[in-house]
Specification:
The chain is α/β, with parallel strands linked by helices and 149 residues long. Helix content is 23%, strand content 30%. It contains three helices and eight strands, in the order αβββαβαββββ. It has helices at 2-21, 61-64, 76-86; strands at 24-29, 39-43, 48-55, 69-72, 100-103, 112-118, 128-131, 142-148. The longest helix has 20 residues, at 2-21.
Length: 149
């Protein structure tokens, strides 16, 4: 009986850890202007969601920098355009841009950054996109974010 109770407790703990793992994602970026994923699903059961961005390339951020930016799909072009004007020192993001739901800083070769955001900022049925706002990158470096049950 004791062994069965311990086994059930361990199973419950493992299940809880598995649920927690679904509330984050690791995203890698490269010198070939790619992310290693084109789609991210976020469970409505997550209170917060974390994106861990890495850059596995060899070029510095002023040449081939990448960030991870989340906005409504309809806002992506405007966020990118305004970000170009903001420049590299501001991570190619307009300061205090209300259209940006979450973003990492701009990183270069071998660097990493993370961002955690409140899932309540997302609405079921809305189209969201993640992208890199470095000039010219968003046409290739983008993907879909979907809120799921």
């Amino acid at each position: 009986m004791f062994v069965k109770a311990v086994a059930l407790s361990m199973l419950a703990l493992a299940s809880g850890q598995a649920l927690a793992a679904q509330c984050s994602v690791d995203v890698d970026s490269t010198d070939q202007m790619t992310f290693n994923t084109k789609a991210i699903e976020i469970s409505k059961s997550c209170k917060t969601f974390t994106v861990n961005l890495t850059h596995s390339g060899s070029l510095p951020k002023n040449v081939m920098g990448h960030n991870w930016v989340l906005s409504k799909k309809s806002d992506m072009a405007g966020v990118s355009s305004d970000g170009m004007a903001a420049g590299v020192d501001k991570n190619y993001l307009k300061p205090d841009d209300a259209r940006i739901i979450a973003h990492t800083k701009l990183i270069g070769a071998g660097e990493k950054d993370s961002v955690t955001f409140d899932v309540a900022k997302l609405t079921a049925g809305e189209a969201y996109e993640f992208f890199c706002s470095f000039p010219g990158h968003s046409s290739l470096m983008k993907g879909e974010v979907t809120l799921v049950d």
